[in-house]
């Protein structure tokens, strides 16, 4: 059995390694500042048209509260009322807009109640009203409204099955949209004929508006057939609840209506606008890295796939930089953004995709001097833990061995949280109020 230290050990290694950690955090903080939902929302609001009788606000997501504060600041007394829902612990004090909290990533009953309030407000809006909708990462789970015949528990079970299989956010949201009464453009259907303006903070690779938050106000490009194919791909068609299978089969066979598609009249008085994204955050991270003396190389804004495999790419490039000076001579900052996945084992470990990626990176850069890797979620959370992610350095494996921790064993168990916690290598920011996917950074000093 590994020895557990009496207290968390402090980061060791050379002063250069400690300095690299400070630089990595500074670069991450610059990325977070660029994703500030308050400022991004405020910059995209427009004066309320003269014809508008009532101005309402609805919204969902981890950044919904900060976005709502910007709306209250901009419109002041012109704002009539509103309801938003955010993740537990992410709420902020508001004046006219009710801020509710619910569970993420697996929806709960509080999310059901919030969705009902939002749906009711949209349904009661008239043709002379303006509804502003605020959508950010996490909106899909925070706005659960299962179709008739499917319970919250059955939808939760389906979500858990997809998460455990490593399904991408595109795949997860495609299935969610076809089990929901609000997603996939159906919130726009409820709000029609009111004017609807949606401000969107992207947490999805490529910023497809119909995927972010499962696109409650966006024409849906996916179909029931697509949702069924995803479940078939992961061999889940025989594992999902019977009610879910029956509903999707009904849709595949055209016995129930599809989600609203492009050209539907419900989108005639609608404007969807992207206000923030992972790319904008990475550009800010690049600038900060350059300011700190590194040559910043932006590798990708669409990194996906298995977290441990993505980590191997970063480790390989770091080794190449150290060995040959390619693709650039040190000091180098390798940057990427995206959202990886983790196919869970049966060992019931604790962690998240960023901590898992950092653990795999630690194995890949073992014994490399003056190298630091950071993987963290811009929302401040990674999996069911209080950490946003974790650090990995060339000395991580050695320090773990000192307390008889085997990194490979922890990786197999998907137990990255318990690996990094006693090493004091977790990145803990608390809720950031934003969410533009994850940021990955390798500094080669």
- Class of the largest domain in CATH? Alpha Beta
Number of structurally distinct domains:
2
**Total helical segments:** 16
Q: What structural class should be given to the helix and strand makeup?
A: alpha/beta
Low-confidence stretches: 1-14
Query: How would you state the average pLDDT, rounded?
Result: 93
Largest sheet: 6 strands, parallel
Cα shape: globular
**Gyration radius, rounded:** 23 Å
Compute the separation of the termini in Å.
Answer: 35 Å
Predict the CATH topology of the largest domain.
glycerate kinase, domain 1
Walkthrough of the structure:
The chain is built from 16 helices and twelve strands. It has about 450 residues and is of the alpha/beta class. It has two domains: about 15-35 and about 280-445, glycerate kinase, domain 1 (3-Layer(aba) Sandwich), CATH 3.40.1480.10; about 35-145 and about 180-220 and about 260-275, Glycerate kinase, MOFRL-like N-terminal domain (Rossmann fold). A six-stranded parallel sheet has the order 3-2-1-4-5-6, sandwiched between helices. It has a six-stranded mixed sheet with strand order 7-8-12-9-10-11, with helices on both faces. Helix 3 links the parallel strand 1 and strand 2.
